[in-house]
Amino acid sequence: MNSASPDTTDVGATVGSYLEARTWVGRRSEPRPVDTAVDESRCKYFAALCEDGNPAYWDAEWARHAFGAPLAPSGMLMSLMMPLPWKPDGRSAAPTMAIDVPLPGRTLINVETDCELFRPVHWGERLSLCEEMVDISPEKHTRLGRGHFVTTRLLLLDAAEQPVATITNVLYRYEAGGSDA
Amino acid sequence: MNEHYPQKCWSQVQQGEALPPLHFPIDYARIILNAATTWDYFPGHHNPVYARAQGQPDIYASTIFFHGLIDRFVTDWGGPLTLVRRRRMRMVASAHPGDTLSVEGRIVRAYRETELGLVDLEITLSTARGLCVPASVCARLPLDQDECPSAPTTKTTTP
């Protein structure tokens, strides 16, 4: 294993102590709009990634008949939390509180997700999202390094502020170069 | 019943039924496409130097790609009216360029919830090194053929 630390400027994780981080548990972000509408291009590009020929994503006429409108692939919903990488005002929010929360670990890897999908999402919908910090584990040692498991819950809302999905995510914030435990 | 896109109904499925396996090769282009389509530009998904410093042998596929592949696996089997209601998964290993992901699954429970026809599936994604992602999915199927809308056109394309 290469024990060099990753270049943290690429990730922008906030460095701090576990005690600071614990004060974040229960914190909930204000709803923010997803940067763009759920558009045809993004939906088809994602379906192409997975070579998914589901006509709900490709055959607009059929999908309108079956669902009222073509659908976004259900698997892509988590990508809606990703902000544009640049904006004219120079601000781009971190995609998740798990990066903003102060912890010693400067890099991360995703571990686990639990997604509940209440209804299909259609092309053209404008969604918003808010996130809650659910839990942060005490320090653990894994084969990747020392760190903390951070659990967040993302709520996706439609234009009527009705929930369309929740995504509970566990991410490991760690410092690379750990034991083989 | 839609006569153009094959669709399973809940009344047709059986507990223990295995889904047709899916084999999906991963190369560098796929993982870069993964970053581009999901807007997930975390450097472990496009920068081999960063990935190695993290303790990984190379760049790796993202969580959202696994979501998409799992859902494709389910709807390839069930048909386009199949809706994923819940998906749980753990990433116990990563998928890197040169790997082929083998997706396998089976129905562990078929049941009704009020007027909905539901199935619970256990799914695994593996590479030649072993288990990569264990997952479980709850999906909704049309109860019977009466719930499947007729096709609006005479297209013959199948997914």
Kindly list the characteristics that best describe this protein.
heterodimer; A: 181 residues; alpha+beta; Thiol Ester Dehydrase, Chain A; 5 helices; 17% helix; 28% strand; disordered N terminus; B: 159 residues; 5-stranded antiparallel β-sheet; 3 helices; elongated
Structure report:
The complex is a heterodimer of chains A (181) and B (159). Chain A has 181 residues and is an alpha+beta fold. Chain A has five helices and six strands, in the order αβααααβββββ. Chain A has a domain at 8-36 and 87-176: Thiol Ester Dehydrase, Chain A (Roll), CATH 3.10.129. In chain A, strands 1, 2, 3, 4, 5 and 6 form a six-stranded antiparallel β-sheet that branches. The longest helix of chain A has 10 residues, at 40-49. Chain B is α+β, with helices and mostly antiparallel strands. Chain B has a domain at 10-26 and 61-147: Thiol Ester Dehydrase, Chain A, CATH 3.10.129. Chain B has helices at residues 28-38, 48-53, 63-78; strands spanning 22-25, 83-90, 100-113, 116-127, 130-141. Classes of the chains: A alpha+beta (181), B alpha+beta (159). At the A-B interface, helix 2, helix 4 and strand 2 of A face helix 1, helix 2, helix 3 and strand 2 of B. Strand 2 of chain A pairs antiparallel with strand 2 of chain B.
